[in-house]
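Comment on both lines for my students:
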Amino acid sequence: MDIRTVAVIGAGTMGAGIAQVCAQTGWETRLYDAFSEGLEKGMDTIDSFWEKGIARGKTTQQEKVKWLANISQYTDLREAVKGVDLVIEAVPEKMELKQQIFAQLEQMAPSHSLLATNTSGLPISAIAETTNCPERVIGMHFFNPVPIMKLLEIVRHKSCSTDSILAAQSIGSAMGKETILVNDVPGFATSRLGVVLGNEAVKMLAEGVASASDIDTAMRLGYRHPMGPLELSDLVGLDVRRDILNSLAEAFDDDSYRPHGLLDSLVEEGSLGKKSGKGIYDWTSGEKSDREDLPL
């Protein structure tokens, strides 16, 4: 599939990262958010990432200028998707919201465009069924931080066409990602494994097995994970993790997937992870540190 123009729907952490990678790939990239403040924050995130890369000698000011020229900002969805070859939706993990957006995308986006969702666990079939073109709806699950993480999980549902699958794989390759192909089952492959490990780590923390940093160190050094499950949960967002766990519990009718009480308490108090300044760790200094005030 010849990609020239991409629309990324949602300028949050994931949307900003996806837009950044699209721009760096050389595509005309349209970043959409319903709120101008969201767009501003998303662009600040992208700019900060590039500036850190320049400071570390991993990129140049000239590259930043070139990449930035590839990104334009939109608060009008119809204008954002006009004439695009690819749409990647990255709004919050709310099924009704995603279904509403895809129903609009079918009407607004060109008939040749691939319609992808970055959902980390919601059923792709339920999103696709709100359209009359389910064959071109597919899951493209990126990982945070998108510019660094190499994996792209492609999720196919029963109505997804072979052409859409091949196009998604080709797009991932162009982005410099390594793709895996999974079927549309609850939690896919990565989220199902990841949230269960994270939930067990939260349980261990609540039981006083060890500190958060020591639990994470155990997995990094003992199992060669690049990041411990608690730090990863903070990075992804504790609210996102909780939603996925509850979705798995309902999908499999198995309460063993339910989020631990500590995870529920953290979300209820607004401690959502790095994005809110506090989660399992305290991030207010810019670096993570163990919290003394966890609601145990």
